Amino acid sequence: MSSSLSAASRKARMASASNVMYTNAVYWPNYRFYRGDTPGQLNYGCVNHVYYAFANVAADGGVFLSDEWADCTAPCDGVQGALGSLMHLKQRHPHLQVILSIGSSNSSETFPIVASDPVLRDNFARSARGLIEASDLDGIDIVWEYPCTPQQGNDFLALLAAVRIHLPEDRYLLTAALPAAKPVLQMIDLRRAAGYLDFVNLMAYDFFGPWTPKTGHHAQLYAMTKDETSGSSGVQHLMASGVAPKKILLGIPVYGRSFLHATGAGQKYRGVGGGEDGTFEYSELPRRGTKEQVDKRAIAAQCVGADGGFITYDNPDTVKIKATFCKQKGLGGLFYFCAPADAKDSKRSLIAAGFRALHSS
């Protein structure tokens, strides 16, 4: 496709996407390909952005695909590569925008180096543009985990400014994933950051886990005590710092966190169940023989017993309430990490529940 044609089609897609009232976005990590998941399995009737995750950053600022085989070569949905499949799906779904997500924990040591140097920032921006033009993508998402000093907060802004020179906002999307935790958010001039960004993807999850002394709802919308982080406290902080509500996407985890030898929030526990990081995919919840309940104060689902102890997660009921919260606050919508872990049954699907609730009157 010639660059002028692809620019025109991208502008048309940006325009059709802006007609969608709310964004319902998903992350699709390339490692899921090895579990038999493909982008073609998603229901694009209720998804309008896909963040293809994760590309890596080299020490010289260059951006590169982290798995060329899974991304571009392996047979997937009748084409080559999972990224190839998304490019193909974009032809069939004109509203769909695909954004390359760069970073995650693999790049947390590289980002501070690259962002602190004007030459490396420029390399990063040029390289990112080359990669997204080659794949006809719609923009990039920066996942630096996390700027943790005021200097790194300034460097983060300088990186966004450099990217915008090469990815002008009338043609490309630029987003960034940030945690809801105040200590990180306070390092960044969020009003200025929002001037460069189309969306802030607020990671409103992982508030509790194997690293915390007590159990808690890992994606609670409302905190149980004033010193806890919650989805609403993260949103409140962004808005108070000058981020326009419509630029905020509230994150929904498509997994639960397990605490063994515990029966609820605020308790001591011994060990975690599930994967090595103490998680169960949402599609595996509730555990067999347990009863799912919703904590109506925190807005969190849970099940207790079996091999998971106390497991905290989101279900369709909590996602509906979070979608209503988005509408009340005038937020841009929701995103989910990660799409392939969702339930296949549409009645049980978090992504479908969020889409329905965002777009119902």
Automatic annotation (TrEMBL):
Q: Where is the GH18 domain?
A: 22-361
The family database entries (PROSITE patterns) matched by this protein are listed as: GH18_2
Q: Which SMART domains match?
A: Glyco_18 (SM00636)
Entries under InterPro entries matching the protein: Chitinase_II/V-like_cat, Chitinase_insertion_sf, GH, Glyco_hydro18_cat, Glycosyl_Hydrlase_18
A Gene Ontology BP annotation from the UniProt entry:
chitin catabolic process
Cite a GO CC annotation: extracellular region
UniProt cross-references to SUPFAM superfamilies, sorted A to Z: (Trans)glycosidases, Chitinase insertion domain
**Keywords in alphabetical order:** Hydrolase
| GO molecular function terms noted in the UniProt entry | chitin binding; endochitinase activity
Q: Name one Pfam family in it.
A: Glyco_hydro_18
* Enzyme Commission (EC) number: 3.2.1.14
Report the sequence similarity comment from the record: Belongs to the glycosyl hydrolase 18 family. Chitinase class V subfamily.
The protein's name is chitinase
The organism is Diplogelasinospora grovesii
